[in-house]
Amino acid sequence: MSDHHFPNIKKICALGAGTMGIGTAVDYAKEGYQVALYVRADSTLSEFENEAKRHKAVEGIDIVLKDMAAHHLIDAESIHGIKTRIKITGDLHEAASDADFVMESIKEETADKQDIFLRLDKICPPHTIFATNTSALNPTEIASVLPAERQKKFIVLHGFNPPHLMPLVEVAPGQATDPATINTAMYLLESIGKKPVRLHKATPGFIGNYIQSAIIWAALELHIVYGHDAAEIDSQFREKLGQYYEVLGPLEIAGYENGELSDIQAKTLLAVMAEKKPDTSIAAWIRNAALRAALEIVANGTANARDVEHAFVHSLGRRYRETGPLESADLGGLDIFESIFRTLGYLKEQTSISMRLGQLVASKQTGTKSASKKGVYDWTPEKIAETGARRKAKLVELLRQDEAKHPMAGHNMRPELIRRAALS
Prior knowledge:
The chain is an alpha/beta fold. Helices cover 53% and strands 9% of the residues. It has an eight-stranded mixed sheet, with helices on both faces.
């Protein structure tokens, strides 16, 4: 448990009892913060059924804590104390009336988020900061329904799944967000052991989903347009790129000194890439798609090159050693990625990729979470469990290494890693 609480923030209100909401509650409670986890009551359900929803949240917290203890990320003896700091309630006033910081992780719909924040504005003290965990929605639009003073205290804190094993949080302001709000959020996240990255502005997809979408779209192109086998795409990706991505981001793998790359240089490099004949080999095709996306983020002023690399390595890079892009799409849900692709403009024109993706989603073949257990791949329960366990083991390994510098990330190793990656 951390002794470095951010001053004036004592109580956290976590909204939503899904994976991210429960993860938020655990992340703060294990570092000593008092947390109210709000599980929204459904007026169409009986009190017994709503109570069952709250009980399911309790079970979710237990699962996360036991998992962390099993992997020695917390002491088993600390579980009881952590749980006593989390109060689960279906009463929004009880959850938020004395909260210093609200972290929202409800349905990814602008109207739903606006509704809950409007209610919170009438409940919370003036100093309370409002944060949303949206993965792609516009924070300025979400906050537009709030009074001007509250808009100054509105911010995006986008974490990655599973939150108790993924350290990165993207911190993105709305147009009215006060710099003091950003600073508070950064310090707060650091106080619970996260690795926040500060964006200059919020653009669709932020950093992680923007680059991830480019990588998955490139893999779908290889599979659907160029006819490469899905398993071969994922295998080559893991072998030739994944092993480096946990240490190096797309810019550094390409040989660019990430700390020195300006937005003007990024625009120039994008123009050069556009004139080159594309290499359709699997590793080069995906590597270049990731590089283009990273350069676009720098060029449009969303974040600087160093922060793009930091964000990638501490989120997507941690997953890609064990799961390739098409496996990742099935694990995350093809319906989710179809929605993100639409937000980012990939589906403006009808292509063989958009048609195939639409067919899969329409037939509810969206990956591991669908009833059919079909997506790009046909999954079995055993394969899902094996893939999840393999990825979790890698995430746990890297989380433990966060306390001590990763041996491969040493200064002397980086030139050799960049050389090897360039040969892939």
